[in-house]
Design goal:
Layout (H helix, E strand, L loop, with lengths): L10 H25 L8 H9 L18 H14 L1 H5 L7 H6 L2 H12 L5 E4 L15 E5 L2 E12 L6 E7 L13 E7 L9 E5 L10 E12 L10 H7 L1 H29 L1 E2 L2 E2 L4 H29 L5 H26 L10 H11 L6 H13 L3 H21 L1
Parallel strand pairs: 1-4
Antiparallel strand pairs: 2-3, 3-7, 4-5, 6-7, 8-9
Helix pairs in contact: 1-3, 3-8, 8-9, 8-10, 8-11, 9-10, 10-11, 10-12
């Protein structure tokens, strides 16, 4: 593997990458090959090994017990873990203390972040709702202050790891938006501590059947008077949408890294299979059709990786790169679906069985085009950066605001 970016890869970063790859091949891949499926669960022992490696605190400052590294190192590890099992790479994002770091006091950070690093305080994020999808400003879940407690009612969707997490970061509306241009106002984020394996009082979880992303469950949540302390807000009341968007560049880079890891796994497995599988008396790697497929796959993987290195470097340098972050998320996820599909073709009928990991890479790669903002959302962001916001988008915002106001009127 090349995997070196000109000017980006220091000796420390190479060591981090290579250590993560070794960990993946020895610890993650065998578990994935054994447990991947609707009922499979990421073992607690593996989670503890990740904590011991420092992976839950890659971006947490050293003063709280973390490694104090950047998004670059975070994505290096995520890519390698995804080469084994994307769900394991995804659990990295349930750590790192993202919204705690961004929105809570130093005292709260000292209370929570060391527990995050040790793997004792992992997160599940409850943002989406059945009727919102990509339009997170349309959140309808409500939170009303009652004395010293917030009372939450409504529904959440696509909340992965809701049962196994130690706390939920749940976004709910605490006030109505003032105008169409400020639909994002009035949304607050709540840290809801819970017992691992259970839901808090007043909350019920219903598993959503999925075609992939196994190793943990994804839930629809119903909230009926969930009570949380007044001081459990992450960030300012009514301004959590800004908190939500603050980490999007890193989140999209993380998704790109996961997509690249899946594609790398499919590429490596295809090379091995093509050298071993014989047809008409020769390894299929001797045939030009297969050789050209692998050449194209390798080129696309490396192109995505180099763009990812650039984006990570921009993020860690503190420069704004929302356009480029959307570009790498879009390009890498689309690339991963193509590459893993080509790998399935190289494997032929064998690829459409559970006997090889390539079908897992293919299933999970398809998801990377959807979560953390669909490919279409990324294209919209890129286009808006290049062309300016369209009049159609302004019209849509006005209509969405009117719909929200009508819903509020009907419920009051």
């Amino acid at each position: 593997m090349s995997q070196d970016g000109l000017g980006y890869m220091t000796e420390e970063r190479r060591m981090i990458r290579d250590t993560a790859r070794d960990f993946t091949m020895k610890e993650v891949l065998p578990v994935a090959n054994k447990l991947d499926g609707p009922e499979g669960e990421i073992p607690m022992e593996l989670r503890q090994k990740m904590a011991d490696m420092g992976y839950f605190g890659i971006t947490i400052p050293e003063e709280y017990g973390g490694l104090g590294l950047g998004v670059f190192e975070y994505c290096l590890v995520a890519e390698q873990l995804s080469r084994g099992w994307m769900s394991v790479a995804s659990i990295l994002a349930r750590a790192q203390g993202g919204w705690i770091k961004a929105g809570m006091s130093p005292e709260k950070c000292q209370q929570y972040l060391p527990r995050v690093v040790s793997g004792e305080f992992l997160n599940a994020s409850a943002l989406s709702e059945a009727d919102t999808g990509s339009d997170l400003a349309a959140i309808a879940c409500r939170a009303v202050l009652d004395g010293d407690e917030w009372v939450l009612t409504g529904n959440k969707y696509w909340c992965t790891f809701a049962d196994g997490a130690d706390y939920l970061a749940l976004f709910a509306r605490t006030s109505a938006p003032p105008s169409a241009s400020k639909r994002w106002q009035g949304i607050s984020c709540f840290l809801i501590e819970k017992e691992r394996g259970k839901f808090p009082a007043g909350m019920t979880g219903f598993p959503i059947p999925k075609v992939g992303y196994f190793g943990w469950k994804t839930f629809e949540l119903a909230l009926d008077g969930v009570r949380v302390p007044k001081d459990c807000l992450m960030g300012e009341e009514g301004k959590a949408f800004l908190l939500m968007t603050k980490g999007l560049e890193g989140a999209r880079a993380h998704t790109a890294a996961r997509a690249i890891g899946l594609a790398q796994g499919a590429l490596e497995d295809s090379i091995t299979y093509a050298l071993e599988r014989k047809q008409f008396g020769l390894p299929i790697a001797e045939y030009q059709a297969i050789r050209f497929k692998i050449a194209t796959m390798a080129t696309e993987v490396e192109a995505a990786r180099q763009l990812l290195y650039f984006v990570c470097n921009e993020i860690d340098s503190g420069r704004r790169c929302d356009k480029e972050a959307s570009m790498v998320k879009y390009f890498a996820s689309e690339m991963a679906e193509r590459v893993t599909s080509e790998a399935m073709q190289i494997f032929g009928g064998a690829g459409y069985t559970k006997l090889f990991a390539v079908e897992r890479y293919w299933r999970d790669a398809r998801l990377t085009k959807i979560f953390e903002g669909t490919s279409e959302i990324q294209q919209r962001i890129i286009a808006n950066n290049l062309l300016g916001k369209s009049e159609l988008e302004n019209m849509i915002s006005e209509r969405a605001f009117e719909t929200q106001a009508a819903r509020k009127g009907a419920s009051s």
